Records
---
Amino acid sequence: MTTYHITLLPGDGVGPEVTAAAQQVLETVGGAFNLDFQFSSHDFGGIAIDRQADPLPPATLSACKNADAVFLGAVGGPKWGTGKVRPEQGLLGLRKSLNLFANLRPVKLHPALAAHAPLRADLVTGVDMLIMRELTGGLYFGEKTRTEDTASDLCTYSRFEITRIARAAFAAARQRRGSVTSIDKANVLETSRLWRETVTALHEAEFADVDLRHELVDSAAMKLITAPGSYDVILTENLFGDILSDECSVLSGSIGLLGSASLGEDGGPGVFEPIHGSAPDIAGKGIANPVGAIASAAMLLRYGLKENAAANALDAAIYKALDAGKATQDLGGALSTQEMTDAVAWHIHK
Ligand code: NAD
Ligand code: IPM
Ligand code: MN
């Protein structure tokens, strides 16, 4: 029996509801694969502001640093708004502290959902992409200034930062369909011109076997809707990746389906979280789609713990539950969060 220490950061809104779902399926997988998970929950985000006046209290950060992996629900909500101390600062602080520069967001359409996706089935059939989002640079982390009437956010990228995320994207493409689309705004932004130059140089030096194309973010936002099947790995900077991944979630059927892994380079703990937020409009109702959280738990097994057999079993269980027509309201179904979680758990077998 292998023991793993998992730090849970349920957070705010639907965060605790979907974190409970992830914990439940991890326990079921653990039973089937002889893995012992020791979970510990910590204040993070809005609830940590309420209880400790700090969205990322020191004890929470050290529990993350000492864990084998971190599972995060979601943070934020109207209660905390966009004031001086914000839940989202905790999330950015955590990503920076753990050096989580690579954010993997797979987008894959389950065949059973093509008819329920907001876009026409013939457009979305075959969608299978991986968004490789840079997570610790760009506008999110540049210097911010504010006077009464003027504000600025500095966007900075170094060759080092671009190279390491591009390397992750090319390596991922080799395990997939061998194609990378790098998305930037090189016709306007200096950071994007350095981005394009650096990605091209790395491609020539180390990854000439991978197909590389560059696209401007505005037209890419359009083509992701009109020809989503033409993308394999998408490589992009922090803010573009944030926006495009919510857009791409629609291709899969619902934002409630997508999971993510945020990884560093030094073998430290990764953070695994659904890409959706705290969904204040449905929080507390028990109807949030838990699949994004459960898919994040599968990524935790795969990338965080290298328990590939258990990860495969969990992914297969998600697939089978969707195949059987199990769905929450966001996908036109009627299941509660708990019923959907039970449906996935029922399909977990060694
Ligand atoms: P959101 O992702 O929370 O919600 C957008 C829409 O998607 C809502 O209508 C919501 O009901 C729906 N939705 C989201 N998750 C769902 C699920 N699992 N099942 C069914 N429907 C779901 O985005 P928002 O409303 O713009 O943001 C709310 C708060 O969440 C903000 O404070 C934002 O900063 C925060 N946020 C946090 C994270 C995170 O913690 N990683 C990510 C995104 C947004
Ligand atoms: C996400 C979220 C975060 C981001 C916010 C809550 C800071 O939208 O994880 O996608 O912008 O990265
Ligand atoms: Mn986002």
---
Amino acid sequence: MKHLLGIEGLPAAELERLLESAAQLKSQPPRLTPTGAIVVNLFFEASTRTRVSFEIAALRLGHQVVNWTAQGSSQEKGETLLDTAHNLAAMKPAAIVVRHAASGAPAYLAARVGVPIVNAGDGAHEHPSQALLDAFTLRQHWGPLTGRTIAIVGDIAHSRVARSALHCFTALGARVRVCGPSGLLPAGIETLAPAVTRHTDLDEALAGVDAVMALRLQRERLDGVGLPGLRDYHRRYGVTRARLDARAPRALVLHPGPLNRGVELTSEVADGPESVILEQVESGVAVRMAILKWVLA
Ligand code: NCD
């Protein structure tokens, strides 16, 4: 049984196959005859893009979708994650797409519940479909990522997006610079994958990069103590027009969403000509179709 739990450890050839499959599925018309398969979205945390695009991806493949959300569920009566998953699995869905605040929750379920599990974001651990859609978007502009340099800026410590992206980009041959305040840069992050460097100075991190990914401060994972003052944070780590013009004039701008405009990047940049933020969202459907096809094969 196949699961997609993270990018770490997936061979580059497997990532390439998923991206190729997404490219083919992107232009494929939606299937109108139902497959009979049902995909359950099991989301314990808030989501807009990820949940809707997994749903649209499943529908385009001809599957049906059931959306479970923690609010209004038996979780409110004290049911455990494992009991909830076992009960849903007893109804024989073809796959379960899980988002949970605990790092490792999807792997925990994959080892115990006899249904293919797709990780849609687990705590600060991984968000594999996001990394694949980021790589897909960049490949549409560049072709292969080999030899490119990508800066990831912001709350690296609490970002599952950063962790999956650095594994994915480096596996595909790019170099990654992670940048943020030292309190939000985990010690040893540069040892997670080859070709990763660590920076606390944004101008240094941006110099000559081919793309920059801005990340949100993960307030829900910061206990308030570690949360920097937003004005000062923006001054030091905000991606602005002036900074891009000075340090990386040809860089593409990525952001996984949701945006905090005026904090990690300005509206001028988010809506500017180098922004591929909505292309990322568009790519998300094709990439998630490829992921569902892969786990259901
Ligand atoms: C991200 C997430 O939930 O990890 N959003 C997303 O899925 N596109 C990023 C975030 O919450 O900042």
